[in-house]
């Protein structure tokens, strides 16, 4: 008989996973308390790098079922979610997501759903890159300086180069100009 596990995650300590557990139980999944894994950790961290999720992976066996309320509980983005689901599928673990109608993400319909989600995520990422490049091109066309502002003015760079030639140290100049040594070294190379 399949064991059913729940993975519930919240991002901050003032949040609780109680609603996620209730939602999973209301969907008809009977979760024994020792099989409900709760974690308070940022969703920006890859699933496999989360301590409680990593321990859960060690416990899961072929035939087990893992239930989550939403896809973002499993990963930080569509790629991470897909990799996590594929890893679990490769181990014989079925993954159900309530937000997608409780579909088993390892079934043919679930895999198709995952492919559509991945395609939409890739499309969104491509649009973001396209908009960013268009914005940079527009700014450059308007004569705006791109990137970080220089830490040393042109006059300061020339002074640094002159003083280095005169024998002053990189560390001493870095302290005086309140910059990292690397900036002084770059000024020397540029001279």
Top CATH class of the largest domain = Alpha Beta
Which series of helices and strands comes N to C? EHEHEHEEHHHH
CATH architecture annotation name of the largest domain? 3-Layer(aba) Sandwich
Number of helices: 7
- How much helix is in the residues? 40-55%
How much is the average pLDDT?
90
Any idea how many domains?
A: 2
> How much is the radius of gyration in Å?
26 Å
Strand elements, count: 5
Please report which band the strand proportion falls in: under 5%, 5-15%, 15-25%, 25-35%, 35-45% or over 45%. Answer: 5-15%
What general outline do the C-alpha atoms trace?
elongated
Concise synopsis of the structure shown:
The protein is of the alpha/beta class. It has helices at 18-26, 51-59, 78-90, 108-141, 154-165, 170-177, 181-190; strands at 4-10, 36-40, 65-68, 94-97, 103-104. The longest helix has 34 residues, at 108-141.
Task: List strands and helices in order, with pairings.
Layout: E1 4-10, H1 18-26, E2 36-40, H2 51-59, E3 65-68, H3 78-90, E4 94-97, E5 103-104, H4 108-141, H5 154-165, H6 170-177, H7 181-190
Q: How would you characterize the overall build of this protein?
A:
The longest helix is centred in the middle third of the chain and has 34 residues, at 108-141. This protein has 2 domains: 4-117, Rossmann fold, CATH 3.40.50.1390; 154-190. The protein has helices at residues 18-26, 51-59, 78-90, 108-141, 154-165, 170-177, 181-190, and strands at residues 4-10, 36-40, 65-68, 94-97, 103-104. The model has no long low-confidence stretch (mean pLDDT 90). It has 7 helices and 5 strands; from the N terminus they run E-H-E-H-E-H-E-E-H-H-H-H. It starts with a strand and ends with a helix. It has a 5-stranded mixed beta sheet with strand order 2-1-3-4-5, sandwiched between helices.
